Amino acid sequence: MAVEGAIDLEGRGRVAVTPWWERHLAWLLVSPTLALFVVFAVVPAFTTISYAFSRVSMVRGGIQREFIGFENFARAVADPLVAQSAWTTIRWMFIVTTVEVALGLALALLLSSGIRGRGAFSSLLIVPIIMPPVAVSVAWFFMYDYEFGIFNYLLNQAGMPSVRWLSDPAIALYAMMAVDVWQATPFAFLLLYAALLSLPRDPYEAASIDGAGRWHVFRTVTLPLLRPVLLVVILLRLIDAARIFDKIFVMTRGGPGSSAYTASITIYIEGFTKFDFGYASALSFLFQLSLVAAATFYVKRVLADYAQPAES
Amino acid sequence: MVGESRWDRFWKYFLIAAVSLLVLLPVYWMANMSFKGRSEFVARPPTIVVQNPTLENYYDLLVTQRFYRYGINSLIVALIAATISVAVGTLAAYALSRYRLPRNFNYHLLFTMLTVRMFPPIVTVIPIFVMYNQPIFGFRLLDTRFGLGLVDAFMELPFVIWMMIGFFREIPRDMEEAGLVDGDSRFGVLRKIAIPLAAPGLAATFILVFIASWNEFLLALVLTQTRAQTLPIAVAGQITQFDIKYGNMMAAGVITTVPVLILALLAQRHLTRGLAVGGVTG
Q1: CATH of domain B59-276
Q2: ipTM for this prediction
């Protein structure tokens, strides 16, 4: 990656008089980052891999480890809960991302078609994005309450029976998806809206001279121009959705039963309620591996034309 | 738009109003309920605007349950995280935007940082828990504010680096070169010219990292127990299997949200850019 106007490290003749820390300033500046990276990413990666092949037990004053080969992985493959939580995570990722990006795009189009109070509306939409997920979760938890919640109250007013929003296994996951949609649609909206505003005007003028209809303009002009940003927004939402933990954990602890276990929740339960670090590490490793595979696929195939290093 | 009818306009504004209402409803409802006393809380139909506002939920939470302790923990953790992350990340970002390190190192480091941003925290939290659970130089970092702040700082580091590279790129290079010609050292240029010029960006980045750390849930859940427990964990603790005190829960949600709203207002101008770099969400 070429850095625009980079200072020549060799420094042309000044080298002899400058002290060592001036000459190696660039390395000194990145070294704290590298140190943190080693402590919190490299070392944990090795620990995870070694635990994944071990039976790990907590003993007084530390950890006892015994090599057991692929036993943890064999167990993971046979564990129906693992398959189920993988499937739940995939469903969560795709449903939530699709709805959020579609709604965000629709809102962005609506707003960019000229409306008064755009600024106020955009500011308002920042509120869900930056709100603590826990606060969002308790607010919705209460609205979903069977007895005192506002949703059931409104349903009853309309003559319909109350719904067990968070305790019916057929509904709970989707009810929690709605919470995520509420919080993250504004994120998709703001990025897409900013992108829409910066699109060139010429193609639109050409299209309007040609007398193209709105839908046609959207399909042939807006969508292709927006594609790179759209793909990045989808990627960011997928990454974020894959790690879903807090909302589900706060509202139902992965329940009812284990119906809303996602990858993160299953690993948390194995690791920190059953304290089976070996098994949880094997699951972490598999989770990580599948994410890397998915990301590589996405970047190679979908982002291919956009994968130039974003900055310079 | 060409040929927009009145009917179109009506629908547009109607939709915008409906969406605004949907966005506001949960926030408003939480705040509204947090000021209701016990009898009004369960009233049917629910009062749309609180009729007899009371602070009893807040009193019970802050005084009886001593909730402020978690607030202080959250504040300190977020300050530690933002300070370390911004300090470390700014230095790296400066190096990456001004120097060309050998072996394409710039590219590799930026790419690695993106990968770090992609990792779900759950996959690193077990090794970090084990590492924190054993004494390092006689200190156990588990259940300490510093320990949690440090991990949060690392998690937000990619975000800081990408943000600050953007801000450093906007500084005209002539000014720094003038500094070098005037005989400043390269570090002096960074300290006296680049950082002051990037200060607004630095402040916005600091605020956004603070918010991210304040909101963070999973790491705080695992790496703190009692002494260093943060607000989000304490708020989640209000949901128990028996006797959920909804009033307290709503008040807790409000207390956790308000500081973030104030900070976001301060950093609003840079927020969209922050989002584009992939920060801030929960």
Answers
A1: 1.10.3720.10
A2: 0.91
